[in-house]
Each structure stands twice: as structure tokens, then as C-alpha cells.
Amino acid sequence: MQFLDDSLHPENQDKVVITVAPYGPEWAPEDFPEDVPVTMQEQIQKAVDCYEAGATVLHLHVRELDGKGSKRLSKFNELIAGVRARVPDMIIQVGGSISFAPEDDGQAAKWLSDDTRHMLADLDPKPDQVTVAINTTQMNIMELLYPEYLEGTSLASPMMHAAYSEMTVPAGPAWVEEHLRRLHASGIQPHFQLTGMHALETLDRLVRRGVYRGPLNLTWIGIGGGFDGPNPFNFMDFIRRAPDGACITAESLLKNVLPFNMMAMAMGFHPRCGIEDTLIGQHGQRMTSVQQIAQCVRVARELGREVASGREAREIYKIGVQYKDAEETLRMNGMAPNRQPGQKNVPFRT
Fold first, then answer.
1. What torsion do the CA atoms of 140, 18, 57, 146 make, to the nearest 10 degrees?
2. How far apart, in Å, are the Cα atoms of 49 and each of 44, 77, 110, 252, 343?
3. Residue of 73, 220, 268, 331 with fewest CB within 10 Å of its CB?
4. Where is the signal peptide (predicted)?
5. CA separation for the pair 135, 244 (Å, rounded)
């Protein structure tokens, strides 16, 4: 990605698109009862509250009435319909894991089967986005969840700790290609959740082969445990290697969330917040999803960047846009064209 002398000036940057992940499927309701919605109406209202606070992208998971993460697509349909009715301009981004919480103590935390996750392309009403991981990866979220922050929560349980330590993200080549094909056919945009440089490089190859034909909305995830760690050099290298036309969001955990969000917004990129990423602020205090959004809004304004409305966020994300082939996808995402037979050195556009 290129930076010119005036690239850090707010007048040359997009408006800020704030993503909120307010459903926190790894937490039990009793871990933060003031901010973990359980009933369908509470879950819908949480989306409305987040939108009114300034978040225009809703990273969506669903709970059953017993507080456990739902794996029923009918519940996803119900929540999507409810959010659409209340805040129609909000971008609905379904978490592609369909909730990874273990059913009972002692079970491993795992994502659902490949076939079940493919069914996200058939949700009705359709979400705007589904998150898509690239390459199967370890996702040990416990590696950076320090004991002092877990005290008094369900994740302090040795069984739950063990379950989440062994979690993996299944995203092999055959699944990724088929999933992208189904989402494309349904007019649903993938939002790529990238765990490191290997994932960005694989995505580049998928674009060059014409497997993916659309805008590149990317989230860099610095949570450790098999993903990139929360080292600013990892983030900067990702930015340096990302295509010029990509839209980048930062995601991290706990006290790393605010620093990475500030770095992202300063450089013209976008933040993600919410209780799925952190329950606490920089002083260890409990912090709701709405409070975290308000914090992002304050930082954005201090940087001179305006916060995008729902409609503006849709334009920035290019919701609904698809491309006809690999070459158009490369061109529209600011990537070098594919090499033609006999072509030497780096291919340039004519």
C-alpha cells in the first residue's frame, strides 16, 4: 500500500467505518450481564444502540435463550431481519464461525462443519457480509487473555480455558473456494479475516486465478495464539503488503484494542471494537460495546476524520459490487496485472 506525503492528512482519507462486535460469543452472560444481550429483543436493541453510537458495521453472532451461542440458522435469520427493520443502513456482517463456543464443559471449542458454514450463503434475509478465514490456523485466544483480566469470568474455568486454547479455524483450500463461489452467487460480500502474511498471500493468489472477484475488505487480526501477535511491526508489514485499493480494519484483544485502533485511524484505516474483542478499557475497568464505540468516535474526531454514516460505509466497502474476471478485480483493487507470456520484470498497466 502506498503512502504519499499527504496521506496522513484527514482530508485525504476516507471517513471512519467503525465495526462493532457486541455479542461476545466466548463470554457467558454472567461475565458481563450489563452488556451481554440474551433475548432476541435485547440482541436487536444492542445493534440499534451501537449504530446510534456511531458503529456502521455489525459483526453478528446469535445467542439462544439459555445464553449459549446459537448454531441455528433460523435464529440468524430472525436477528438479521430484526436489525434490518430497526437500522436498515447498518452493514450486517455475520461471523463465519456460526459461534465457536463449546456446548458443555470439557468439550473443545470449534467451528461448525464446512457444509454448515456454506449454508450462510442461504440466509434469508441476506447479510451484507460473511467473514471468511483463509488457511486453517490455530486460534488459541487464551494465549493473550491474562489471568488477572479473566478473574471472575467463565473463561477462568480450567475446562473452558483448555477448550478455547485448542480452538482451530478450519479454512482449507477446497472449502474457501466453494464458500467464495456460493457467497458470490448469493450476492454476499466476503470480509476477509486474515491471520498473517500467509493468508494475505493466499488471497492474492485466489484473486489472480479468478476465484475471488470483488472488492478487498480485509481485517488484520493481531491476537496471537496462531494468528499474528499484537506487534506493530506485524501490522505495518501487513499494511505495506496489502493492495493499494484494499479497505483495512484492525482487530486485536484487551488493552491492545485501543492502541491498534488509534494506529489504524491515524493512517486512514478503520477500527473494530466491542466486547468480543475486549471487556475492559486501558485502566482495567469494564467497558461496554457502546462505550468503546464512543471512544473510537472521540479519537477519530481528534484526528480530524469524520465518522461514516451507514450509507457512506456501504460506499467505502463497495457493498454489492462484483467484478467480471481476474483482470478487472486486480485493476479495481490497485494490484499489478497478471504476467502475460514473455513479459519481463513487474507487469505494469498500460
1. 20
2. 9, 20, 30, 22, 54
3. 331
4. none
5. 23
Instruction: Name the β-bridge partners of 227.
Output: 225
52 grid coordinates: 446510534
Tell me 279's DSSP state. S
CA angle at 193 for the pair 192 and 197, rounded to the nearest 5°: 100
Amino acid type, 15: K
Residue 16 per-residue DSSP state: B
**Looking at residue 350, what is its pLDDT?**
72
Distance CA 212, CA 180 (A): 7
The three three-digit cell numbers of residue 101, written as one number: 463456543
Task: Give dist(CA 327, CA 329) in Å, integer.
Answer: 5
Q: How far is CA 159 from the centre of its chain?
A: 27
Residues 17 and 250: their CA atoms lie apart, in Å, by 11
**How do residues 174-192 score in pLDDT, each as one tens digit?**
999 999 999 999 999 999 9
What pLDDT does 120 receive?
97
State the number of CA atoms in the 13 A half-sphere of 54 facing the CB: 26
Residue numbers in the chain where pLDDT is lower than 70: 105
Report how far residue 269's alpha carbon sits from residue 263's, in angstroms, rounded to the nearest whole number: 8
Rounded Cα gap, residues 64 and 327, in angstroms: 44
Sorted by where each starts, the structural domains of the chain and their CATH numbers stand as 13-101+119-333 (3.20.20.70)
